[in-house]
Design goal:
By secondary structure, this protein is α/β, with parallel strands linked by helices. The protein has a domain of 243 residues: Rossmann fold (3-Layer(aba) Sandwich), CATH 3.40.50. It has 13 helices and 13 strands. The strands form four sheets. Strands 3-2-1-4-5-6-11 form a seven-stranded parallel beta sheet, sandwiched between helices. Helix 2 packs parallel to helix 4 and helix 4 packs parallel to helix 6. The N and C termini lie far apart (50 Å). It binds nicotinamide-adenine-dinucleotide (NAD) and 2'deoxy-thymidine-5'-diphospho-alpha-D-glucose (DAU).
């Protein structure tokens, strides 16, 4: 892809920061708009601090005037929209923030993008892109033998998080069909890798295991997720920005279904090898009260992305999960900073009532 100017929202979060780092590495200029909620962390971007190819702006996607001024000042070729409240358990405890950020925030961003796009000369209008980053959770839950989610699977969101993302997807679609805004949406499965906030399954289990704390597996641990290494997700987004068809949606998945309990046991085995003093870490596995409305199985059919645009995931789960454990062990200071303060309140709130 030619050098582009990208306006990235949520670029201090897990996937967003991986995308920003990769974007700068690929030679793009990135304007990074992030509100720095509990999930946003400038330490993720320390390696590009002072790099003129990256401009960080602290601000919200709910601030239409700010977005308009950034669009006018930087004339981006594409908006890549990651910013969201992203944790299902938090959406169960406090859904309002999810509606505000994911629905109203996406609407505000779309509206500012539309006004800006309409003001562009025709040649710029033709190449402009609004890339919306979404999730497989909008499709609901699969039975054990049902075929994987494909782009035509009906939306059946089950958590407030999934419902808010579904609403944002519908708004993005409507801005294409009604106003012609050049949008593309991707719906991805569960990501893992560096810089993931340790409220999510994989980093939480690594952190707790290292600390000798209980590994809280919800319900019977047989829920299935389709895990994708974060760099592969970022690569898919670059591919779709470059060659995806306007108004289309593309599913992104890891071709890698795993039961939660198996994932936790794999993590324990790697940690037994790398931190032998805590072995066997599997002794810490504790079954706790299930997540309400817990989706049983996600699986993604990404044939469209593979056959149309030639994308394939490069990382195997075996190598990716090992790299991830090593990253968390080597970045103990990053983890330490993240799990101080407000993090403790969340752990108390979410897990206190489960045991
Ligand atoms: P995250 O929670 O790690 O990061 C979200 C980022 O958005 C944070 O930096 C936060 O500060 C920022 N943010 C929140 N509200 C904002 C606002 N009002 N204005 C500007 N910035 C704001 O999330 P993530 O896991 O990196 O997910 C990124 C996107 O990818 C989300 O849209 C999510 O729905 C989607 N997604 C995530 C996964 C996954 O497995 N993590 C899978 C598929 C899709
Ligand atoms: O599928 C994509 C989605 O994946 C993204 O849209 C979300 O933003 C992202 O958070 C993720 O959602 P999940 O709910 O699948 O991820 P989480 O890491 O929270 O949980 C993964 C599985 O592990 C899920 O079945 C619940 C279970 N779990 C989770 C936690 C935090 C546990 O058993 N114990 C835990 O402590």
């Amino acid at each position: 892809m030619d050098r582009k100017v990208l306006l990235v929202t949520g670029g201090a979060g897990f996937i967003g920061s991986n995308f920003v780092l990769e974007g700068v590495r690929r030679g793009h200029k990135v304007v990074n708009l992030d509100a720095l909620t509990y999930a946003g962390n400038l330490d993720n971007l320390a390696s590009i601090e002072g790099n003129p190819a990256h401009l960080f702006v602290r601000g919200s996607i709910l601030d239409g005037a700010l977005i308009s001024s950034l669009l006018t000042a930087h004339q981006p070729d594409a908006i890549v929209h990651f910013a969201a409240e992203s944790h299902v358990d938090r959406s169960i405890v406090g859904p309002a923030a999810f509606v505000q950020t994911n629905v109203t925030g996406t609407f505000t961003l779309l509206d500012a993008a539309l006004q800006h796009w309409r003001s562009l000369p025709v040649i710029k209008r033709d190449t402009f892109r609004f890339h919306h980053v979404s999730t497989d959770e909008v499709y609901g839950s699969l039975g054990p033998h049902e075929p994987a989610f494909h782009e035509e699977t009906p939306y059946r969101p089950n958590s407030p998080y999934a419902a808010s993302k579904a609403a944002s997807d519908h708004l993005v679609r409507a801005y294409f069909h009604t106003y012609g805004l050049p949008v593309v949406t991707t719906n991805c499965s569960n990501n893992y890798g560096p810089y993931q906030f340790p409220e999510k399954l994989i980093p939480l289990m690594i952190h707790n295991a290292v600390e000798g704390k209980a590994l809280p597996v919800y319900g019977d641990g047989q829920n299935v997720r389709d895990w994708l290494y974060v760099a592969d997700h970022c690569d898919a987004i670059f591919t779709v920005i470059e060659r995806g068809r306007l108004g289309e949606t593309y599913n992104i998945g890891g071709l890698n279904e795993q039961k939660n309990l198996d994932v936790v046991n794999i993590l324990c085995t790697i940690l037994d090898e790398l931190c032998a003093q805590g072995a066997p870490h599997s002794r810490l596995i504790t079954f706790v009260k299930d997540r309400p409305g817990h989706d049983r199985r996600y699986a993604i059919d990404c044939t469209k992305l593979q056959s149309e645009l030639g994308w394939v995931p490069k990382e195997s789960f075996r190598s990716g999960i090992r790299k991830t454990v090593e990253w968390y062990l080597e970045n103990a200071k990053w983890v330490e900073k993240v799990v101080s303060g407000q993090y403790r309140d969340w752990i108390g709130e979410n897990y206190g009532s489960r045991t």
